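TICKET: design request
STATUS: open
ATTACHED STRUCTURE:
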């Protein structure tokens, strides 16, 4: 996961699962160490908690679930690969669970900290794959003060639609959430 290597965006498949599991485990350790956390105490938490997913994206709890959704025709999944074929991130653009929202999509990603700069191209790749299949409305939810995530979503082509005031709680504080 050395930073600076070029990456290629490709459709995600089950063959990428092992690399994604390694990526998430390593990223979890990096985040916990940076925050002074105890990895052994927190390692049982789902990755979605550590990725700070909100709204409908929170229902996509792991890569395997996203692969199954794509196989069911409910959207697209992209992975970012290094020249050595290591996965450094993944993004999804998937239909929510409700059949009433069948042509809508929710967009989100998980990226290794050393490749955070690749979040926007990865999100854009998943968005382009989903739109090639004819999907229409796409939403992404994020904390309003998460400059990296909001910036990546904007760079991928999304715009702020709604600001939900004091909608979520993070670290004991109420915060605004953006729907883009």
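STATUS: resolved
RESOLUTION: sequence designed for all positions
ATTACHED SEQUENCE:
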């Amino acid at each position: 996961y050395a930073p600076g290597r070029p990456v290629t965006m490709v459709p995600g498949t089950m063959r990428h699962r092992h690399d994604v599991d390694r990526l998430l485990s390593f990223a979890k350790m990096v985040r916990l160490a940076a925050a002074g956390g105890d990895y052994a105490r927190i390692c049982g938490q789902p990755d979605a908690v550590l990725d700070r997913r909100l709204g409908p994206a929170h229902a996509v709890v792991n890569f395997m679930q996203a692969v199954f959704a794509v196989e069911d025709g409910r959207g697209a999944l992209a992975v970012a690969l290094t020249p050595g074929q290591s996965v450094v991130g993944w993004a999804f653009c998937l239909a929510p669970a409700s059949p009433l929202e069948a042509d809508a999509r929710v967009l989100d990603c998980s990226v290794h900290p050393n490749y955070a700069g690749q979040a926007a191209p990865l999100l854009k790749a998943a968005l382009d794959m989903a739109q090639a299949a004819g999907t229409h409305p796409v939403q992404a939810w994020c904390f309003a003060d998460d400059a990296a995530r909001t910036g990546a979503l904007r760079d991928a082509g999304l715009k702020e639609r709604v600001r939900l005031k004091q909608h979520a709680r993070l670290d004991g504080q109420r915060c605004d959430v953006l729907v883009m």
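CLOSING REMARK: The CA atoms of residues 18 and 86 lie 10 Å apart. Confidence is low (pLDDT under 50) at residues 39-50.
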